[in-house]
Amino acid sequence: MRYLIHLSYDGTRYSGWQRQGNSDRTIAGKLENILTRMNGGEVTVHGAGRTDAGVHALDQTASFDLVKPIDPSDVMATLNAYLPEDIAVTSCKTADSRFHARLNAAGKIYRYVIRTDEVKDVFQRRYQWHLGKRLDISEMRLAADLLTGTHDFTSFATSTSSKHSAIRTVKRIDIRVKDGTVTLEYEGTGFLYNMVRIMTGTLCEIGMGQRSASEIPEIISARDRERAGMTAPAQGLTLVRVLYPETAAGGK
Amino acid sequence: MRYLIHLSYDGTRYSGWQRQGNSDRTIAGKLENILTRMNGGEVTVHGAGRTDAGVHALDQTASFDLVKPIDPSDVMATLNAYLPEDIAVTSCKTADSRFHARLNAAGKIYRYVIRTDEVKDVFQRRYQWHLGKRLDISEMRLAADLLTGTHDFTSFATSTSSKHSAIRTVKRIDIRVKDGTVTLEYEGTGFLYNMVRIMTGTLCEIGMGQRSASEIPEIISARDRERAGMTAPAQGLTLVRVLYPETAAGGK
Questions:
Q1: ipTM greater than 0.95, yes or no?
Q2: CB within 8 A of A126, min separation 6: which ones?
Q3: pLDDT beyond 60 at B252
Q4: In CATH, which of 3.40.630.30, 3.30.70.420, 3.30.70.141, 3.30.70.580 is domain B2-104?
Q5: Least C-beta-crowded within 10 Å: which of A27, A84, A130, B226?
Q6: How far apart are CA A148 and CA A220, in angstroms?
Q7: Where are the domains of chain B?
Q8: Does A88 touch chain B (CB under 8 A)?
Q9: Does domain B107-241 have CATH number 3.30.70.660?
C-alpha cells in the first residue's frame, strides 16, 4: 500500500533530507527507522524536496510503501509518537500505486527570510539570516523580475551535471517587507542544487548596492557559477509547499 | 551613570532571570558578566520582571549603574557583541538616577500560548504549551472575567509570605484563538510567583471541562493554592512588555 504524508520540520539539527550512509541525522532516516519497524522490512521514503542541511520545511510531502496496509491515521500517530520534537507529520493518506511525491510534483514554493534590522530576533534566529543591513527593495524587485521566467540556471547552481538540463522555470519571486525582515518567496517548477540560496545571495548583494539589477541577464547567459553572488546561509530557507497537478493523487 | 535597557530573550536554556550564587545560567548573570568587565567593577542589573526558568521575554526592561559614563549606543553594541544568540538588547539609554526598572514599573503584560491542535508546531515548540486538546473558549472567557479585578491572589501563587500582601489587580485577560493556538494575554499591576502560570493552568482545566467557570470566586476566596488548577509549563510564557507611568524615566 502506498502512502502520502505531509510533514514539517526544523532542519537546524539535521544534515538534510536525504539519507547518507548510516547517518541517523537526516529527516528521511528518522522516518525510515520508524516505518521499517512498523513494516517489518526496509522502507524507503521519497521526499518531494531533498532539502539541504539546516533547511526547514513547513509542508514537505513524501511517499512510501508498506507491505501490509495500516490505517493512515495509525501510521500518522505512530510516526508522531516516535519522531523527535523538531519533526511533525501533519497528514497521512493512502495514494495511488503510481504516485511518487517527487516525480509527480509540478512545482515548489520556497521562502527565504532575511533579517535587516541591526538587532537579531531571538525567537526567529534559527529561521532567518541575520544580515543586519538595509536592502534596496526596488532594485531587488527589478532583479527578481529579470530572474523570473524560463532560463538555463547553471550560474545559480553549486554543481550541475552536463548530462541533465539546467533549464528551470521560476514562476514568481515575491519580495515582502515586514517588521525588520525581508521575505523572498520563490515559486518554480523545480530548483537546481542550492539555486534558491544563490538567487537569494545574489539578490541581497544587489540590495546592498554591491551589484546592479541590470547584471542579471549577463549572469544568466554566462552559465558560470562564478558570475552569480554568494550562497545565502541554509537557516533562512524553508520549503513552504509542494504543488501537484489537480489530477495527481497528491495534494492536501 | 544610570542606564535603562530593553531586551528580549529565549529563556529555554536559562534557569531564569535572577542570579543564583555563581550560576552563569541566568539572564541577569550574562548581562552582569559583560557589564562588570566594561565597568571595571561589580555591576548589579535590576530587571523589571524576575522571569522563571524557561520563561521568555519579548520586551523586558532592566536598569544598572556604570561608574564612568559610556555612550548608550556603545553599551548596547558591546552587550550584543558578547551576549549569546538567545539574548538581544533592543535599546539602551541613560536614565534618571532615581529610576529603577522594577520599582518604577506600573504594570506588566504577559502572554501565554497554548497549542490546541493535535499536531505540534515544530517552529514554535519552544514558545508554546502543546496541550493538543480543544478548549471551550466561551467558558474560559467567563472564568477570565471573574479573575479580572483586584483580589487576594494567594490561591494562584506557589508560595506567599504572610508578611507581604497578595493583593494584585489584573486589568484584563484577553483570549484569542488563531491557527490551532489559544493565546492568553494578561495585564496587571504585578503578579505573584507563578501566578500567570497557575491562572493559565486553571483556565485550561475550565476549558477542558474539568472545572466550571463558576468555581472561580470560591477559589479566590479560599486563599489556598490547593484549590486552584495546575501550574502551566514555563515554556508557553512570555513577558511581553513592562508598563511605566508617563512621568517615569522608563518606557520606550
A1: no
A2: A10, A12, A235
A3: no
A4: 3.30.70.580
A5: B226
A6: 11
A7: 2-104, 107-241
A8: yes
A9: yes
